[in-house]
Design a protein that fits this description.
596 residues; mainly beta; Immunoglobulin-like; 33 strands; binds 2-acetamido-2-deoxy-beta-D-glucopyranose; binds copper (II) ion; Multicopper_oxidase_fun
Length: 596
C-alpha cells in the first residue's frame, strides 16, 4: 500500500465512523414490515398482452391495466405504497412524478440515482409524505427503460378546501401507443447498431382510442374512443396528465373552448383563459370548463350534434398523429366507434414559448430575484452521431440507466463517499464535477439553471420536455438562440413566474450546424431538499440515449443523513429493504414515527 492510499483509507475510515453518528443522533426508525404492517396502497406490476386501439401489444401493466389505477392521497400525511414486481425477468421502480419533495431518500424511484431496482418477484415499500400545499395533479410511472409507455397512472393529491369552486372533476390521461415492444425499442436505442423506436401509432385518452386512418370498429372498450361524461350547466375540473412517452400534443374540445387554467404541475395558478392546450411528456394542467346550458344542448341536438370531440394532434415530429375522445351529455345518442371524417377543429401549429411569462401563481411563491441568485449553471446539450450510435450529452457526458454501476445514492454509502462530487471542481467547471458527472449544490444556494440547445450531430433538432426530481423550479422562460441574462431579466419585469416540474425546450429551427446555440429554457431553483436528484428530458427514448443529469444537493451529512446502519438494507440489489414471498422487508421510517 502506498502512503497515499493508506492515507485515503484512513480518511475513509474516519468518514465511515463519522457516518455512524447521524443514525444515532437522528434516530430514524427501522421497522420490520411483517403481516402486522398494512401499506396504504398496493400496486402489482405484471407483463402481458393487452389490446389497445385494436392492436395487441406485450406491455408492462399496473394492476393488470394501462393506465394503472388512480391513486388519491391527502396532504400532510405519510403514506406507504407497496409495489410488487410480479414480472418474471424485468426490473422495476416506481416514480411519483412531481411529488419528489414528498419522497423519502430511497423512495424517489429513479433506478440510477436513488435506489436499486426492484428485482423480479420482489416488492418495495415506498414512503411518501405529500406536504400541505402539494394538492394537485401528478402521476406515477415506472422509471425503467420504455416501461412507462404503459406503466403509469394518475396520482391526485386532494385538497380539503380548494381555492376554486367546481362541481366535479375528470381525469384526462394521455399516453402513446408504440407497437414495437419495450424490449425492441430499448435494444434499438441502447445497443449498436442504433435503431430509432419509430413514431407513435396513437395517442390514447385514459388508455382508449381508435386505430388511426381506418373505418369504424366494434365499439368495445379496448377499441373505442374514451368518453368524458358530463352534465349540463356544471363546472368541471379537467385534470390533464401528459403521460406520453414521446408525444408533445396540442388539444382542444369541439364546442367548449372556454378553458380556464387553474393549476400547472401541482401548483395553483391565477385563472388563465385559453381555448387549447399544449402538453408535453411529464406536464400536467387543470382547467375549469363550464358545460353547455340545456337550451344550447337541445339546439345542438336539433342540428344533429350529439357529441363533442376532444381533438389531439402530435407536434414537432416527422408525422402528425391525430386522435380523439368524446365529451358526452346524458340522454343524447353518441358513437364512440367512429372518428370524424373531417377534423372538427383546426388546432394551431406549435406556439413557441406557450404561456411562458404569462402564468401567475395563485398566491405569492417566494420567487427568487436575480439578486438572490448565487450561481448560474448552463447545461449544454449536444448530440453525437457516429456509425453505430446516437447519444445525447450534457456538458460533454451522457447519463443512462447503465452508466453508474450502482445507483448514485447507494454508491455514496457503499463507497464511503469517495464518489461524493467535488463542489470546487464543479464550480470551476461550469457546474458539473466531471469525475462523477454530477452537479453538486449547497443547501441555501439559489441556482439559475439554463438548458442550452446546440446544433446536433445529424443536423436534426427535437423538442425536449425537461423534468426535475427533488424540487419544483421557478420557470423563467425560454427563447431562441443563446440565453441572454440581461434581456431575460427585462422580460421578467412585471411577471410572476410559477413553479413547475416539467417545461419545454422548444425547437426554433428544424436543423442547425453542430455547436450553434439554438434555443434555451431557464429555471431558478432554491436548493433546499438534500439528496440525489435526476433532471432529465422526459421523452423516454431520449433518456435512454443519455439525456439525463444528476444533481447532488447538500453536503455529505445532509445527503447521507439516514446514516449507517439504518440504510443497510437499501445498499444491495435485493437487500433487506426489499421483500419477497419468503421475506418481509425492513424499512426506514423517515417521516412517520407513530406506531400504527
Ligand atoms: C391493485 O390490486 C391489488 C390486488 O391485486 C389491490 O389490493 C389494490 O388495492 C389495487 N390497487 C389500487 C390502487 O387499486
Ligand atoms: C436488474 O438490475 C440489476 C441491478 O442493477 C442488474 O444487475 C440486472 O442486470 C438487471 N436485470 C435486467 C433484466 O435488466
Ligand atoms: C368565456 O370566458 C370569458 C372570460 O371568462 C367570458 O367573458 C365569456 O362569457 C365566456 N363564454 C362562454 C360562452 O362561456
Ligand atoms: C357508429 O358509426 C358507424 C359509422 O357511421 C356505424 O357503422 C356504427 O354502426 C355506429 N355505431 C353505433 C353504436 O351507432
Ligand atoms: C459511438 O458512440 C457510442 C456512444 O457514445 C460509443 O460508445 C462508441 O464508442 C462510438 N463509436 C465510435 C466508432 O466512435
Ligand atoms: C474535467 O474538468 C476539468 C476542470 O475541472 C478539466 O480540466 C478537464 O479537462 C475536464 N475533463 C473532461 C474530460 O472534460
Ligand atoms: C431561431 O434562430 C435561428 C438562428 O438565428 C433562425 O434561423 C430561426 O429562424 C429562429 N427561429 C425562430 C422561430 O425565430
Ligand atoms: C427472498 O429473498 C431472499 C433474500 O434475497 C432469498 O434468499 C430468497 O430465496 C427469496 N425467496 C424467494 C421465494 O424468492
Ligand atoms: Cu428529449
Amino acid at each position: 500500500m502506498t502512503t497515499k492510499t493508506a492515507v485515503m483509507s484512513f480518511c475513509r475510515l474516519l468518514i465511515g465512523l463519522a457516518l455512524v453518528l447521524p443514525s444515532i443522533v437522528n434516530g430514524y426508525k427501522l421497522r420490520y414490515h411483517d403481516e402486522s404492517f398494512t401499506p396504504d396502497v398496493v400496486l402489482r406490476v405484471t407483463e402481458s398482452s393487452i389490446s389497445r386501439a385494436c392492436s395487441t401489444r406485450y406491455s408492462v401493466l399496473i394492476n393488470g391495466t394501462a393506465p394503472g389505477p388512480e391513486i388519491r392521497l391527502r396532504q400532510g400525511r405519510t403514506y406507504w405504497i407497496r409495489v410488487y414486481n410480479d414480472m418474471e425477468t424485468q426490473n422495476l421502480t416506481m416514480h411519483w412524478h412531481g411529488l419528489s419533495m414528498a419522497a423519502s431518500p430511497f423512495s424517489d424511484g429513479s433506478p440510477q440515482a436513488s435506489q436499486w431496482p426492484i428485482a423480479p418477484q420482489y416488492f418495495f415499500d415506498y414512503e411518501l409524505h405529500p406536504d400541505v400545499g402539494d394538492a394537485g395533479t401528478y402521476f406515477y410511472h415506472s422509471h425503467i427503460g420504455f416501461q412507462a409507455m404503459s406503466a403509469s397512472g394518475p396520482l391526485i393529491i386532494e385538497d380539503d378546501d380548494p381555492p376554486y369552486q367546481y362541481d366535479e372533476e375528470r381525469i384526462v390521461h394521455l399516453s402513446d401507443l408504440f407497437l414495437k415492444t419495450d424490449e425492441e425499442i430499448e435494444t434499438g436505442l441502447t445497443t449498436p447498431p442504433y435503431v430509432w423506436s419509430g413514431e407513435t401509432n396513437n395517442v390514447l385518452v385514459n388508455g382508449q382510442g381508435l386505430p388511426l386512418n381506418t373505418g369504424a370498429r366494434d365499439g368495445d372498450n379496448e377499441c373505442s374512443l374514451a368518453t368524458i361524461l358530463v352534465e349540463p350547466e356544471k363546472v368541471y375540473r379537467l385534470r390533464f396528465i401528459g403521460a406520453t412517452a414521446l408525444s408533445f400534443v396540442s388539444l382542444a374540445f369541439q364546442g367548449h373552448n372556454n378553458l380556464s387554467i387553474i393549476e400547472v404541475d401541482g401548483d395553483y395558478t391565477q385563472p388563465l383563459e385559453v381555448d387549447y392546450l399544449q402538453i408535453g411528456p411529464g406536464q400536467r394542467f387543470s382547467v375549469l370548463m363550464r358545460t353547455k346550458r340545456r337550451e344550447e344542448l337541445e339546439e345542438d341536438r336539433a342540428n344533429g350534434i350529439n357529441q363533442y370531440f376532444l381533438q389531439i394532434e402530435t407536434r414537432e415530429r416527422p408525422i402528425s398523429v391525430r386522435s380523439y375522445a368524446v365529451l358526452i351529455y346524458p340522454g343524447g345518442s353518441y358513437n364512440v366507434s367512429t372518428a370524424p371524417a373531417n377534423p372538427p377543429i383546426t388546432l394551431p401549429s406549435t406556439a413557441l414559448g406557450w404561456l411562458d411569462y404569462e402564468l401567475r401563481p395563485l398566491t405569492p411563491n417566494n420567487f427568487p430575484t436575480l439578486a438572490e441568485v448565487t450561481r448560474r449553471v448552463t447545461v449544454t446539450i449536444t448530440q453525437i452521431v457516429n456509425n453505430t450510435m446516437v447519444t445525447f450529452l450534457q456538458n460533454g457526458f451522457p447519463w443512462t440507466e447503465s452508466f453508474p454501476p450502482m445507483p448514485y445514492l447507494v454508491a455514496l454509502y457503499n463507497e464511503e463517499m469517495s464518489l461524493f462530487p467535488s463542489y470546487e471542481s464543479a464550480v470551476n467547471n461550469g457546474g458539473m464535477d466531471n469525475r462523477t458527472r454530477t452537479f453538486p449544490a449547497k443547501l441555501g444556494e439559489v441556482l439559475e439553471i439554463v438548458i442550452q440547445m446546440t446544433g446536433q450531430g445529424n443536423g436534426i433538432l427535437n423538442v425536449h420536455p425537461f423534468h426535475a426530481h427533488g424540487s419544483h423550479f421557478y420557470d423563467i422562460g425560454s427563447g431562441n438562440g443563446t440565453y441572454d441574462l440581461v434581456q431575460n431579466e427585462e422580460r421578467l419585469k412585471g411577471t410572476e413566474p410559477v413553479r413547475r416540474d416539467t417545461t419545454m425546450l422548444y425547437r426554433y429551427t428544424r436543423s442547425g450546424i453542430a455547436g450553434a446555440t439554438l434555443g434555451w429554457r431557464a429555471w431558478r431553483l432554491r436548493v433546499t431538499n438534500a439528496g440525489v436528484w435526476l433532471a432529465h428530458c422526459h421523452i423516454l427514448q431520449h433518456m435512454m440515449m443519455g439525456m439525463q443529469t444528476v444533481w447532488v444537493f447538500g453536503d455529505r451529512n445532509d445527503v447521507l443523513r439516514l446514516g449507517y446502519p439504518a440504510v443497510k438494507g437499501y445498499l444491495s440489489y435485493g437487500g433487506e429493504a426489499y421483500g419477497n414471498s419468503s421475506r418481509w422487508p425492513t424499512c426506514v421510517h423517515y417521516w412517520d414515527d407513530d406506531d400504527d
